[in-house]
Known about the structure:
alpha/beta; Alkaline Phosphatase, subunit A; eight-stranded mixed beta sheet; four-stranded antiparallel beta sheet; 16 helices; 32% helix
Amino acid sequence: MSEPANVLFILSDEHTRDVSGCYGHKIVRTPNIDKLAARGTKFTAAYTNCPICVPARASLHTGTYVAENACWDNAHPYDGTRRSWAHRLRDAGHEAMSIGKLHFRSAKDDNGFTEEVIPLHVVDGQGDLLGLIRRPKAAARGGMPDLAKAAGPGESTYAKYDRNIRDGAVEWLKTRAPALKKPWCLFVSFVKPHFPLIAPPEFFAMYPPESLPMPRLYEPNDYPTHPSVKALRECMSYDDFFTPEKVKVALAAYYGMVSFLDDNIGRVLTALSEAGLAGNTRVIYSTDHGDNLGTRHMWGKSIHYEEAAAIPMIVAGPGVPEGKTCTTPVTLVDVYPTIVQAAGLPFDATEKALPGKSLVDLANAASDPERVALGEYHAAGSITGMFMIRKGRWKYIHHVGFRAELYDLETDPGETKDLGESAAHAQTLREMEAELRKILDPDAVNARAFADQEAKIEKFGGRDALIARGDFGYSPAPGEKPVFATRIEA
């Protein structure tokens, strides 16, 4: 194992993997992320463990799958009970500093950090209670027109918040980090490019809407037809409120927010270098999940297709191969052992049993495309548990109670041809389901998720009370109040 090193862990929110220059996007400009990838290792088969904020962040923080940590949705937030990599570092005398979005239950909980600066946690310690209602059908979401209505250039509380996060990280690196004697971890967690789709004007101007192509699979016959995906899309009906012109404005805003994010990342990396710390600091860049961005007439996340499930994952610094592309499947649970290893701490028995593996070790090994990546979704809009397995060329999506989907990402990276009902691929389908069942029992996990959600529905007054409360679209930045909206047909 290489010498211990500091860790600068930069996380964004809702950054689709392929909307980066280093991942092949032909329009969006991300020079700082691209430079980081050039001096480190870029993982091309990286996935979220859940394509929605709260569960993804619980998996990232604890190194456990959603089925184990039971943070099923945005109303079951991490509460500090299960040990995290931050607890592990702090309890061993290392600084574990957080600046920005966490999306846990509360700053009053012991989430493991030595300090939480301007944290964003779930609303009222409760989160999205409406999303608990998933059967007999998912509760209708309020505020669906707002995504299209708000899209365009302008200032938002999220942009202001990200600037504050950036400035806090720069100040910490300049004034506090140089004095620390043990390896430290600074977690810098931005909220962009999470919606609302409002980009600072100078970044929006980089992408004239009229010059942009429409999303993939956006023809009238491209709506999802799989029953559980169709039900989710009908609940999350953002696209019903878009015109073709507004779609391009929304894409320009998203691209602008990605470039705004990249600019903030660049300023943090410059501060690291100017503090003389770049040589002994490993940098991790990733996101919690992606965004569908209109593909298949879907916006937001919540699905296991590449747009929402695949994430950027880049590691650079001492001990990491430079300019390498690694095809080994990885997920957010691999962050836990990466950070603990960097601090020079040995893995205890509990950590050895975790599913993750150090990203640095994976980067230094020969690529292993046969490693399995797991994703789950039990949250808002879904009428059943949805599980994803990525192994080699295959993407398998298991819908409890419905037919499975199967995609060959080698010949069909855009997931346009579902092979789940192909007789020629029946054996592959069985093999992929077996891989899923090696990890968990999807039927049992699905039942546990529904039971926990229904118990919480009753705890907060029942179905009618939660429908009357409505939903708030996105978690407000610190100091901003949530705005609730309802839809009548629930």
